[in-house]
Structure formats: structure tokens, C-alpha cells
């Protein structure tokens, strides 16, 4: 399922979910490039503390996406080069941090998907507390363990596990419709009559 979603733009998936869900504009890709898609292994961490993130790396199955809600605090980095190397070695699918990273130059040189809210050189604490595999929320987007987490250059999205099939069908249809629309634009046959029709419906004057 993750592989099928990875072929679609996150924007198309978002459109298919009524544009009501998003991980927030602050969470941006920090890696060299590449799509994030995989089931969520969730972590709730104290701001600036990465003890439970270390534990989650040890628990992660190949393809899992570690999703960390650390309150969005950017004072201390939650991960850097060494943790990234561990995740790559274990076959983790990617990591989402509602917090900061460091060793950003190294991370930018890798294809391993890393989404975070910022960068700082100040390192983390390792005292806890924290929780693993509990529902977390990032900028209003709730992520439950096992939900599908998607990310590309436009941002992040979580698709609830029990909605995967229906959302995939809608997103695929949206993608195919946009491909046809772009072909019409290229051919000069795009029909924009809906613009004036919408303006008339809204009572706009001076169209004729």
C-alpha cells in the first residue's frame, strides 16, 4: 500500500481528503530528495529529549516511519548524523520530527527521508519521559500507530489506516484527471468556462 501511495503527489492525496489534514508548513524535507511513505511508529517526546527516539529506532521494522511529536521546540536537536546512520542500517523508512535536527549538511546529502521543523547545533537530552506507539498530533494532524505517513516537497500527510483503500482510489482518480487537464493545457484545448460560471453564481458583476 505504501508503494502505491508513493507514486502519487501528496497534494493529490490531500485533495482527496477534503484538504482538511496537514502536518503544518514548518515541517520540511531536510534530505537530498525522495518520497516518504510508510506506516507510522509514533513517539511522544519531551521537547529537546531524544531518549524515546533511540528506543523507537531499536523497535522499528523495515519500512516504518518514526513520527515524533516533541512539541515543535527548536532549542535542542533531536537527532543528527549518528542516529540517521542507525536508521539507514535498520531499514527504517524515514523520520518525521516536530522539532529540530543537527548535522544538517550530512542529512542533506542523504536520500533517507527526514522531515523536521528546524536546525540547531545544540544537542539533545536523554532523560525522558516519553511514550511510544500512542496517538500523537502535529499541527492538528492526528497520527495513530500504523497510519500511513506520506511526505514530498509539498509537505506531510497522514492517512488513517482504515481509510487507505478509499483515499487511494480517490487520489488515483484525481491524479489521472489532472494529467488529462495538463495535456489539454499543453494542446491549447483547456476549457476554463467554469471560472465565469462560478463568478456568475457568486454574483460578480461586469463579466459580459
UniProtKB/TrEMBL annotation:
It comes from Roseomonas acroporae. Its cofactor is a divalent metal cation; Mg(2+). Mg(2+) binds at residue 103. Substrate binds at residues 80-83, 102. Keywords: Coiled coil, Magnesium, Metal-binding. This is Putative 4-hydroxy-4-methyl-2-oxoglutarate aldolase. Residues 161-188 form a coiled coil. InterPro entries: RraA/RraA-like (IPR005493), RraA/RraA-like_sf (IPR036704). NCBIfam families: PRK06201.1. Pfam families: RraA-like. PANTHER family: 4-HYDROXY-4-METHYL-2-OXOGLUTARATE ALDOLASE 3-RELATED (PTHR33254).
Amino acid at each position: 500500500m505504501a508503494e502505491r501511495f508513493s507514486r502519487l503527489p501528496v497534494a493529490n492525496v490531500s485533495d482527496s481528503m477534503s484538504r482538511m489534514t496537514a502536518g503544518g508548513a514548518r515541517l520540511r524535507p531536510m534530505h537530498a530528495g525522495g518520497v516518504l511513505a510508510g506506516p507510522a511508529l509514533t513517539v511522544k517526546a519531551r521537547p529537546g529529549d531524544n531518549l524515546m527516539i533511540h528506543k523507537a529506532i531499536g523497535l522499528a521494522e523495515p519500512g516504518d516511519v518514526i513520527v515524533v511529536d516533541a512539541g515543535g521546540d527548536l532549542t535542542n536537536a533531536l537527532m543528527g548524523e549518528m542516529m540517521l546512520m542507525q536508521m539507514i542500517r535498520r531499514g527504517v523508512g524515514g523520520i518525521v520530527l516536530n522539532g529540530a535536527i543537527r548535522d544538517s549538511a550530512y542529512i542533506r546529502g542523504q536520500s533517507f527521508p527526514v522531515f523536521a521543523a528546524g536546525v540547531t547545533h545544540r544537542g539533545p537530552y536523554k532523560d525522558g519521559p516519553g511514550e511510544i506507539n500512542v496517538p500523537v498530533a502535529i499541527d492538528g494532524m492526528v497520527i495513530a500507530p500504523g497510519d500511513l505517513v506520506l511526505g514530498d516537497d509539498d509537505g506531510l500527510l497522514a492517512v488513517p489506516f482504515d481509510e487507505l483503500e478509499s483515499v487511494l482510489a480517490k487520489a488515483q482518480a484525481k491524479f489521472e484527471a489532472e494529467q488529462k487537464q495538463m495535456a489539454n493545457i499543453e494542446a491549447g484545448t483547456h476549457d476554463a468556462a467554469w471560472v465565469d460560471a462560478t463568478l456568475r453564481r457568486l454574483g460578480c458583476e461586469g463579466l459580459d
